[in-house]
């Protein structure tokens, strides 16, 4: 529709310009025709400006939508990384707690097995019992 209006406006401007050459120089009709032509040309300039503004707004909106989608994708990726890091941290903390307990349990079992008879007491085992701590 806008293209039709612009083409009609251009056609009318061409007709007005061609009609100007037929009018007498300095006559009131020619002055009026020039004023009409000026108004038509200003109207064409305004329509062109409006069209360009609409295109610019549409381009800006598309760019903002694309940027929003990109930001959303980055945030989703960061969230996945944070969840992954959290689970790795939980696994690491569990390993820091469980592995020393298993190690201490194994050594305690061996030491208690050795001390079971009661005939010999080892100073090594007595020293180790004092140093066993399941936490940091």
Question: How would you portray this structure in words?
Answer:
The chain has 136 residues and is mostly helical. The protein has one domain (2-131). 85% of the residues lie in helices and 0% in strands. The chain is built from 3 helices and no strands. The chain has helices at 2-20, 28-115, 123-131. Helix 1 (2-20) runs antiparallel to helix 2 (28-115). It is rod-shaped and about 135 Å long. It starts with a helix and ends in a 5-residue tail after the last helix.
**Total of DSSP H or I helical runs spanning 4+ residues:** 3
What are the low-pLDDT stretches, counting only 5+ consecutive residues below 50? Answer: none
Mean pLDDT: 83
Number of strands: 0
Query: How would you name the oligomeric state of the polypeptide chains in this document?
Result: single chain
Structural class from helices and strands? mainly alpha
Query: In percent, how helical is the residue content?
Result: over 70%
Radius of gyration: 45 Å
The main pleated sheet reads as: none
Q: How many angstroms does the end-to-end distance come to?
A: 78 Å
Strand residues, percent: under 5%
Total tally of structural domains: 1
Report the principal-axis shape. Answer: rod-shaped
* Helix and strand element order: HHH
Summarize the structure.
With 136 residues, the protein is an all-alpha fold.
Write the layout of secondary structure elements.
Blueprint: H1 2-20, H2 28-115, H3 123-131
Which tags fit this structure?
136 residues; mainly alpha
